[in-house]
Amino acid sequence: MGDVLVTYDQLTELNDSLKNIIEELKNASNRADELEAAIGDPYGRNDLREAAEEFEDGWDDRRNKLREDIEKVQQHVEGVVKGFEEWDTDTSSQMG
User: Fold this and answer.
1) Whose CB among 8, 56, 60, 65 lies 3.0–4.6 Å from 32's, allowing a Cys bridge?
2) Crossing angle between the packed helical segments 47-95 and 8-39, to the nearest 10 degrees
3) Alpha-carbon gap, residue 36 to 52, rounded angstroms
4) Rounded to an integer, what distance in angstroms lies between the CA atom of residue 66 and that of residue 72?
5) What is the rounded CA–CA span in Å between residue 12 and residue 7?
6) Using one digit for the tens of pLDDT, what is the confidence trace for 24-66?
């Protein structure tokens, strides 16, 4: 198996991207409420709004589970970055 090279910049970028995804998933519920309000009851019917609400209710639980899983990955990535930074600092201080 070959060597794998991952830079601090790549790990930091991944960590930032994961944080952004988590934030988007947290805010998705607010956007769904706005969508339902925007749909309203066209022509006195609420079928479309109710379908959007039903979809959102079903997706909400799955989205929260996905967010929780991504948060775990993000925490691991952040831990790897911090661990390597600490090792790098300790090693350089021992050498100098």
Assistant:
1) 56
2) 160
3) 7
4) 10
5) 9
6) 999 887 787 788 888 888 888 889 888 888 888 888 889 999 9
